[in-house]
């Protein structure tokens, strides 16, 4: 984000980054696997042959309890079409009945789900527990919460009684800012203006310190107080993140500023941006040659859609998504949604070992890793923004490359010119422009591994010679202002000006003669 603001900071009002839409899943883990269900049925002394009658009796009692109370309060509404917007229906019912706070609607709808069934096995001639896809009635409880805004719970009415909770992080932030006395202007789920952006960000960060398990248990009990009495002994919910959209909103001063910039961003993300760049944004490793790993079982897909909010560019890889769109012509939103988190590592203790050492372990879906998920999402958006910072420059290419093509001096010593057409200099520029160097920069040995094929197996004398050559190349790049040294480290980063020049030169090398003539 730093490089993006260095480039376009004069056009930007403020930046907010945090969770947007959250969909959290409550699973009764004992009832989500055949062995656990068998153990539960043994505890309640229900034979497998009587499971269906027992489950049906429990479901009927649950549905009666929910519908009776909701109908008496005038809140219940059954939806014949599962594709109908539940949120819009709930808000419409709230407006019709003048409800402005608390429970505003209870909706019933038949939807697909995973259920527990007991089936006969033809081979063993025995009954067995199975988890299989089916459909059943689901109940949505919608609330207008004074602290969290619009939220809902969704309960599956058949075993294993899975629950989902949905809320909007930006709606939650709006309530926080109102209480804190921070003025703002909001459109849908983004803010076009905030009186104090830093204060708003601090409030947004407070969401990550929430005791999510206790909060969600309280909401579950509020919506369905009968569940603990119907399923005896009570089985607690394990809460995980089903969908968590992490969004970075960059609010521009005027719609005209974003309108001029956005077409170039779209052109860049669907043209020069390569699939391996998208992999690096997500943090997936690639080979030294820049190719994806062979064990990466997936593909990168980029699509463009015209939405009500604006033009949306979406990159998708391994069920995970990264989006960019211009919301209402004034907010540039970068948003990622992580579904498959198996490849992401975070710094934490092992589960169940609170006294153990911290180490890099797999990111969990549970709410215990909510703040770590936010860190991963923030880094993805930062890498994406850093790449976007290299576009939108109306300066002619000749003017950009003019200084690079002239000899200069560095600390009193003459330094040669850079030749963007020479293979050796092109290889150097491509190396420093790699996506994995966007955040943490690069070292001498990082470039040596890229510029010399035998770097890994080189003798000590040859390694010293290669390191010396890379040192001279770094001096060359620093003299031309292409890179800067990170203070108190051995790392270097491409400067904002250098990024513009390098990206433009490399893009020009890939352009056809016809494209160059059209540009002229």
Describe this structure in words.
- The longest helix is centred in the N-terminal third of the chain and has 22 residues, at 51-72.
- The protein is of the alpha+beta class and 520 residues long.
- The chain is built from 17 helices and 19 strands.
- It folds into three domains: 1-22 and 175-209 and 239-392, no CATH class; 29-161, no CATH class; 397-519, Arc Repressor Mutant, subunit A (Orthogonal Bundle), CATH 1.10.10.
- The mean pLDDT is 90.
- The radius of gyration is 28 Å and the shape is elongated.
- Strands 2-3-4-5-6-1-9-13-12-11-10 form an eleven-stranded mixed sheet, with helices on both faces. Strands 7-8 form a two-stranded antiparallel sheet. It has a two-stranded antiparallel sheet with strand order 14-15.
- Helix 10 (275-282) runs antiparallel to helix 11 and helix 14 (444-451) packs across helix 15.
Describe the structure in brief.
This protein has 17 helices and 19 strands.
What are its keywords?
elongated; Arc Repressor Mutant, subunit A; alpha+beta; 38% helix; 19 strands; single chain; two-stranded antiparallel ribbon; 3 domains; 520 residues; 11-stranded mixed β-sheet
């Amino acid at each position: 984000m730093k490089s993006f603001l260095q480039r376009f900071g004069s056009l930007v009002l403020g930046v907010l980054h945090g969770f947007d839409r959250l969909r959290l899943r409550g699973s009764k883990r004992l009832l989500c696997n055949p062995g656990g269900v068998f153990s539960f049925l043994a505890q309640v002394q229900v034979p497998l042959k009587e499971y269906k009658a027992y489950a049906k009796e429990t479901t009927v009692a649950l549905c009666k309890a929910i519908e009776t109370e909701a109908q008496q309060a005038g809140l219940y509404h059954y939806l014949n079409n599962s594709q109908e917007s539940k949120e819009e229906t709930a808000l419409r019912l709230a407006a019709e009945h003048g409800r402005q706070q608390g429970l505003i609607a209870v909706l019933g709808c038949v939807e697909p789900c995973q259920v527990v069934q007991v089936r006969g096995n033809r081979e063993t001639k025995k009954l067995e527990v199975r988890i299989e896809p089916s459909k059943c009635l689901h109940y949505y409880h919608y609330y207008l919460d004074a602290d969290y805004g619009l939220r809902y719970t969704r309960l599956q009415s058949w075993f294993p009684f899975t629950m989902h909770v949905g809320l909007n992080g930006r709606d939650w932030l709006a309530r926080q800012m109102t209480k804190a006395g921070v003025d703002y202007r909001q459109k849908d789920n983004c803010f076009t203006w905030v009186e104090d952006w830093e204060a708003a960000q601090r409030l947004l960060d407070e969401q990550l310190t929430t005791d999510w398990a206790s909060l969600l248990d309280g909401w579950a009990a509020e919506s369905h107080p009968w569940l603990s009495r119907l399923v005896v002994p009570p089985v607690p919910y394990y809460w995980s993140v089903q969908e968590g959209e992490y969004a970075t909103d960059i609010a521009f001063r005027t719609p005209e500023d974003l309108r001029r910039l956005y077409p170039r961003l779209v052109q860049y993300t669907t043209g020069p941006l390569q699939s391996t760049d998208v992999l690096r944004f997500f943090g997936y490793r690639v080979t030294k040659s820049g190719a994806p790993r062979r064990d990466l079982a997936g593909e990168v897909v980029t699509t463009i859609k015209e939405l009500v909010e604006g033009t949306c560019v979406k990159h998708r890889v391994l069920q995970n998504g990264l989006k960019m769109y211009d919301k209402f012509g004034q907010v540039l939103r970068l948003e990622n949604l992580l579904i498959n988190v198996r490849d992401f590592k975070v710094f934490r203790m092992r589960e169940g070992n609170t006294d153990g050492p911290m180490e890099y372990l797999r990111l969990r879906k549970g709410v215990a890793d909510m703040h770590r998920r936010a860190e991963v999402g923030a880094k993805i958006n930062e890498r994406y923004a850093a790449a976007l910072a290299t576009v939108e420059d109306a300066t002619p290419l000749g003017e950009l490359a003019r200084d690079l093509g002239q000899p200069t001096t560095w600390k009193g010593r003459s330094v040669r010119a850079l030749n963007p057409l020479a293979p050796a200099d092109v290889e150097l520029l491509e190396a420093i422009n790699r996506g994995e160097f966007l955040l943490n920069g690069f070292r001498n040995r990082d470039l040596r591994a890229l510029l010399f094929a035998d770097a890994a197996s080189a003798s000590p004398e040859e390694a010293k010679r290669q390191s010396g050559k890379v040192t001279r190349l770094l001096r060359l790049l620093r003299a031309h202002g292409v890179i800067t040294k990170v203070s108190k480290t051995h790392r270097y980063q491409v400067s904002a000006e250098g990024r513009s020049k390098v990206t433009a030169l490399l893009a020009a090398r890939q352009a056809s003669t016809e494209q160059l003539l059209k540009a002229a």
